[in-house]
Amino acid sequence: MVEDYFRQYGLITVFAAIAMVVPISMLLMSWMATKIKVRPRRPTPVKLETYECGYGPVGGQWTFNARYYTFALLFVIFDVETVFLYPWASEFGVLSAQFGVFALLEVAVFGVILGIGWGYAWRKRALEWR
Questions:
Q1: Alpha carbon 42 to its chain's center
Q2: What are 100-119's pLDDT values in tens digits?
Q3: What is the CA radius of gyration of the chain?
Q4: Which of 1, 21, 24, 32 is most exposed, with minimal Cβ within 10 Å?
Q5: Inter-CA distances, 67 with 73, 78, 122, Å
Q6: CA–CA gap between residue 91 and residue 89 (Å, rounded)
Q7: Whole-prediction pTM
Q8: SS3 of 99, please?
Q9: How far apart are CA 117 and CA 86, in angstroms?
Q10: Which residues does residue 55 pair with via DSSP β-bridges, in sequence order?
């Protein structure tokens, strides 16, 4: 009984340990490289400036810029659309045999709702990378 417990959860424990050891060791190696002067640390005002995807920073260091989060949220929404449509499309033959036109109408309603959301985001210029 105890052997089954270790066999089942031993692999999870090993992966959890690796998941903790790898990032901690990378941080420690980076810190040690700075301390023993393996890599130089020469901060300049340009290097310390906030970086925003190739553009000059808007506002100060702690200014909240919602456009990146809006773009990411829209990506997640349309990505979830694909997650919901893929199983439906792969089983369409079985669904159409069982549910007939109802399955097609349900996905059409889903597509219309997503189209309305896409149109709203387009009209609000949320899909443009400013």
A1: 33
A2: 778 778 888 988 988 898 88
A3: 25
A4: 1
A5: 10, 17, 14
A6: 5
A7: 0.44
A8: helix
A9: 19
A10: 52
Spatial distance between the Cα atoms of 84 and 91, rounded to a whole number of angstroms: 12
The first and second tokens of residue 87, run together, are 């199983």
Contact between 2 and 10 (Cβ < 8 Å): no
Instruction: Look up residue 76 and give its two tokens.
Output: 């997640």
Contact at 8 Å (CB) between 33 and 39? Answer: yes
SS3 88: helix
**Cβ(126)–Cβ(72) under 8 Å?**
no
Q: What is the pLDDT of residues 37-90, one digit of tens each?
A: 777 778 888 777 776 666 666 666 666 667 777 778 888 888 888 888 887 778
Q: How far is CA 130 from the centre of its chain?
A: 21
